[in-house]
Specification:
The protein is α+β, with helices and mostly antiparallel strands. Helices cover about 55% and strands about 15% of the residues. It folds into three domains: about 5-140, no CATH class; about 140-240, PAS domain (Beta-Lactamase), CATH 3.30.450.20; about 285-465, 2-Layer Sandwich (Heat Shock Protein 90), CATH 3.30.565. The strands form three sheets. Strands 6-8-9-11-10 form a five-stranded mixed beta sheet. The protein has a four-stranded antiparallel beta sheet with strand order 1-4-3-2. The protein is rod-shaped, with a radius of gyration of 46 Å.
């Protein structure tokens, strides 16, 4: 620690009353004792010439009480033991000189005590403010630095070195270009040159080398000039703030907002399509409302399910239950079975609408319209494809040659999965009921080796196969 810092630290330290008194006694008695040890002119004037520095020291380090004690002791050579230097004062003038010196000592001692206390308070408060500022800088992700008028470091900068890993001599030679990303260096140096010419604040954001992590981090630089009275730049004071995390958060926010806008636009397009399709072939407003509200509720269930998964892949069983939720609450004639399969968000939304239309058709015309009817929804994974089968049994018998009406449900079956990962859909109306089959390619599926296929046991017959 430098000597100046040690002196300031000693001023800020707390001293007990008796230690201050001891300091005053030692300093005040020392010149009196030396006067007797060094006779002659030097010894005679020593108590008087040492008065001012002794009062100043005791006041600064001991306080007012120590200063008063020192003053009282220092008056001893002036009053009871007054010895003027030989030949300087006549015998008849001794009394007048002693009285004058007594008054002068008291006045000078009081002034020095007052001034020293003001000085001590100023030094302590200035040091405390400096320490608070240093602690604030160390607690924040900010590097504070100073440069000479030419923009070079005049000496070591610990904060700069800790962040960039560069010594101040490297910055002195290369400037900001030594630590910013090469793609940002040209803009940074142009801004810095313009600030130096115009004597204005230089502010720029650049990717800055961060030695502790070994990569570039986004940082905000601001360097302001300190102007001399004649308008010249005396020095530059700057601060570099690490905003890498904030920058990344802003980029993620922009991506999320864009994704939200895209999804809202798609959802509104789907709803508009549902309105138009639901309005076709209806004879009354209640009929339209029934169709439209059912489809919108199915779409809402799909979105709720995907929101729970944060719009990542959803389980196929959960998708089926979401699509058939209003129907499962009214009947136990629907069976759902199949292995765990991850369904992408776009496929899940379309699949919910398809299953809802199949269930609505089964409730009005198919197996669910009969007390003895039942529906089996089954799926399996085969050769990298998800095979879904909707099988109705026990419903009203279909007349030979009966074909399905080409309504919204049939158009949805034709179009919903056509562009979904090589999607396909087929259906047939048999005397036993509707048999609808859907399929799409499983993402990330790898064709297994012949040895792995030979070692895999055949799956047990599904519920739909046992119903045949």
């Amino acid at each position: 620690m430098p000597l100046s810092d040690r002196l300031v630290a000693s001023l800020r330290g707390r001293r007990t009353f008796w230690r201050g008194q001891l300091l005053a006694v030692i300093l005040a008695m020392a010149p009196i004792a030396l006067r007797d040890m060094a006779p002659g002119t030097v010894g005679a004037i020593l108590p008087y010439i040492s008065f001012v520095p002794i009062i100043l020291v005791t006041s600064l380090w001991g306080g007012v009480a120590s200063s008063l004690t020192c003053l009282v002791i220092s008056l001893y050579p002036v009053t009871f033991s007054f010895r003027p230097p030989p030949g300087l004062v006549d015998a008849h003038e001794v009394e007048a000189v002693r009285n004058t010196m007594f008054v002068a000592y008291c006045a000078i001692g009081g002034v020095i005590t007052f001034v020293s206390q003001v000085l001590r308070g100023s030094i302590v408060s200035t040091k405390a403010a400096e320490d608070r500022y240093r602690a604030l800088v160390e607690a924040s992700a900010t590097v504070v630095y100073s440069m000479d008028p030419s923009g070079r470091f005049p000496g070591p900068s610990p904060g700069w070195t800790a962040f960039t890993g560069k010594d101040w001599t490297e910055q002195r030679a290369a400037g900001f270009a030594s630590v910013v990303h090469p793609d940002d260096a040209l803009a940074v140096m142009s801004e810095w040159r313009a600030a130096r010419i115009g004597r204005t604040v230089a502010s720029f954001q650049a990717r800055t080398w961060h030695a502790p992590t070994g990569r570039y981090r986004h940082a905000l630089w601001r360097t302001a000039p300190v102007l001399a009275p004649d308008g010249r730049v005396a020095e530059w004071i700057g601060a570099m703030t690490d905003i890498h995390d904030q920058h990344n958060a802003e980029q993620i926010q922009l991506i999320l907002v864009g994704e939200l806008q895209h999804r809202v636009k798609n959802a509104l397009s789907v709803v508009l399509g549902l309105v138009r399709q639901s309005a076709r072939g209806v004879d009354s407003l209640p009929d339209f409302l029934e169709r439209f509200s059912g489809r919108v509720e199915a779409l809402a269930e799909a979105h709720a399910l995907l929101s729970d998964t944060r719009w990542s892949d959803a389980d196929l069983e959960a998708v089926a239950e979401a699509a058939l939720k209003p129907f499962l609450a009214r009947t136990d004639a629907i069976e759902i079975e199949g292995p765990a399969v991850a369904v992408p968000p776009s496929t899940a939304t379309n699949l919910v609408l398809v299953l809802h239309e199949l269930a609505t058709n089964a409730l009005k015309h198919g197996a669910l319209s009969s007390r003895t009817g039942r529906v089996v929804l089954h799926w399996r994974v085969e050769d990298g494809y998800v095979r879904v089968q909707w099988l109705e049994r026990g419903g009203p018998a279909a007349s030979p040659g009966t074909s399905l009406k080409t309504g919204f449900g049939m158009r949805l079956l034709q179009d919903a999965l056509r562009f979904e990962r090589d999607g396909e859909a087929s259906w047939s109306l048999t005397p036993l009921g509707l048999d609808c089959r859907l399929g799409w390619r499983l993402e990330g599926w790898v064709n297994p080796s012949p040895a792995a296929l030979a070692a895999t046991p055949p799956p047990p017959p599904s519920r739909s196969e046992r119903l045949r």
